[in-house]
Fold this sequence. Notes:
The structure holds 2 protein chains of 2 kinds. By secondary structure, chain A is α+β, with helices and mostly antiparallel strands. Chain A is built from 3 helices and 10 strands; from the N terminus they run ααββββββββββα. Chain A has a 5-stranded mixed beta sheet. Chain A has a 5-stranded mixed beta sheet with strand order 4-10-9-6-7. In chain A, a hairpin with a 2-residue loop joins β1 (104-111) and β2 (114-119). Chain B has one domain (11-246, 260-492, 525-535): Cytochrome C Oxidase, Chain A (Up-down Bundle). In chain B, a hairpin with a 2-residue loop joins β1 and β2 (75-76). At the A-B interface, α1, α2, β7 and β9 of A face α4, β3, α9, α10 and α11 of B.
Amino acid sequence: MNQNYGWGLPVQAxxxxxxxxxxxxxxxxxxxxxxxxxxxxxxxxxxxxRQKNSSRALYSHRTPLSSYIPDALMxxxxxxxxxxxxxxxxxxxxxxxxxxxxxxxxHIVAEQFxxxxxxxxxxxxFGKQNPSLINADNPLGLDENDPDSLDDIVSVNELHLPLxxxxxxLLSSKDVIHSFFVPEFRIKQDVVPGMNxxxxxxxxxxxxxxxxxxxxxxxxxxxxxxxxxxxxxEEFENWTKSKTKS
Amino acid sequence: xxxxxxESHQETFIRKWVFSLDHKTxxxxxxxxxxxxxxxxxxxxxxMRWQLAYPGSALxxxxxxxxxxxxxxxxxxxxxxxxxxxxxxxxxxxLGVVPLGVGAFxxxxxxxxxxxxxxxxxxxxxxxxxxxxxxxxxxxxxFFVPGGAAQSGWTSYxxxxxxSPGQTIWLFAMTFLITSSLLGSINFIVTTLNLRAPGxxxxxxxxxxWAQFVTALLxxxxxxxxxxxxxxxxxxxxxxxxxxxxxxxxxxxAPVEYAGGGSALLWQHxxxxxxxxxVYVLLLPxxxxxxxxxxxxxxxxxxxxxxxxxxxxxxxxxxxxxxAHHMFVSGMKTSxxxxxxxxxxxxxxPSVAIITCFLLSLKGASIQFKLPMLFALTFLPxxxxxGLTGLPLGFTPTDVYLHDTYYVIGHFHYxxxxxxxxxxxxxxxxxxxxxxxxxMNEFWGKIHFWTTIVFMNGIFxxxxxxxxxxxxxxxxxxxVQAHNLVVQPTNVLMTYSAILLMIAQIPFIVNFFVSxxxxxxxxxxxxxxxxxxxxxxxxxxxHKNFEKIPTVYKGPYEYNVPGESSDFSPQHLP
Lengths: 246, 574
């Protein structure tokens, strides 16, 4: 079976996967602690204060200040979490887009039910697209007459990337909302028709990783999968050369 | 007053049982209808669970009887799976839990607990039930129209929902259901404001009434937004407008025939502006019931009455400011997520406060483990799990991974099923004697309780495991994706737990109906409770509830008051 997956989180294969997992572990540790403390207290009370003979309950309307401690601790923890963990990580994974010169730039177009990767090729420019040219062999409607499109690479359901460089991807959809999800990279972003949404990640392992669609997109949603193929820089260059038409 | 006038006539069967103006009859209508819808919605997901455990296999026994829109030739197909999923969610929320918590319990017990003879607007009350009923029938009918039922999730995200079959009837039905809720909420608010018995100040209200009051305000302010959104989506479908259709859509290789220029994200904002407060509508009445049963079963005043009532209100207000935590990865401006993460984490604090107060209510108590208490006590750790698992979902970095996975499904089912539904069942056992003058059978009740809680956990706990492994939601066949394979055996465990959970409801259903006619007769106040609903006969007098409107002299949970010989001190006695 695929070594990337097990009973817990998948293997970490991107530069920020570890940070994200760190917050997952932190949160779950705190959740477990809270639950165990509450559970112990509850079981203690159920045994200690069960009705015995003619025992009378303690009548009181007092709410001592100490009863606010759990609420206060929770608030303090959450404020710390938001400002010292949450906002920095979120800003990093969403807004720290890498420089174009040192990243692999491409477009990914989602449709019912496939992922089409569009690389600009050596000239770094994406060829023009014309919706009326769309057919089974030309899912993006690339205009062959546009010189920029001559070295473009179109790959369906296979996202090739080199190790050591971040990928800068612009996501768009032809029809409905999809969602680009690669579990091992800890990346997920809805792909919305009418919008071009930038994402980035940097693969840290060579191998094959699964793309799933994480937003219900129709009857083929369950089978809308693809593969990310992370290769050494040389192998990626070979692949690029082999797919370039001219 | 109008009710006195009615009393002096012999009512026709139709007036007494079908178009009744009596809040108690309307409450029972809501109760029976919502319980039937809960059973139906549960059956739908059982079908799905078979497909998840054994993808592509023929459904045993009932496979050949299912309509073609769900399973042609006895094997479920993807469109059918998606339809069952969308309808399960819709039915459970809008036809099941909310009508039970608000329509049934709220209608029956709000007037009683405030010492009123009926709701402020009995005719509007009756209308709200029948409009709900029509909405429910429309939803059921949607299975049989060409194209079948809605299949774009209960969330009805555009453009998929506009381009897919089944959504038109769903949208129509939603407008009815929303109207029913709006009418009901106006009634609850005015009734609570105006019809409280003499001496019943706000600080003497039972927490159940506080919960229903805040819930009604949530419904009133949140639903109109979805009503508008639903109408806009309906127009996009039938009038080919483009409120939600962006320009340039190409479906199946061909451009769609829409002018375009709309926004897909706009629907999400309109939907979640309602749907987030809606989850507190699912929760608050149940918390109110837990408070009532806990006070009664611990024989002491609830700890932190003011804190709990205040937390209900704080949750109510804050629930309008968290909706976009459902949209962290939606493509909305990323800086908006900072705001919504903050408000979402903060809304967990009043929930922590409420659970803390409920737990502290056990300290120094004299706990009676009556049947309703088993349910109320179980609510605490179960809601604990549900609420705590909300934290990594509300925290944006972790939500990136967990969004739209089974972790989310596990989270909300823990809150709504092992939380709210368990509390509502406890409410049924608790208030059954008041509604019917008889008790439900204790032995079968305990069997129902233990089996239910074990099997519920068997279904929902593995969902967290699946979610952490990255298994997405709404997958007709999870085995197509490699990262779902290792945890696929949990689907089998969950499916058998679900089947056993269904079987475990049989003693409950039988107990309920048999006890209505043959249950052990009880006196007016079998639980020795203090709140006003126990100060009238069981069942209460038709149309007027109380022989004489009670006067309230004290708070709602005066148990074991020092110096009194009895361990409970009813509100209406000086």
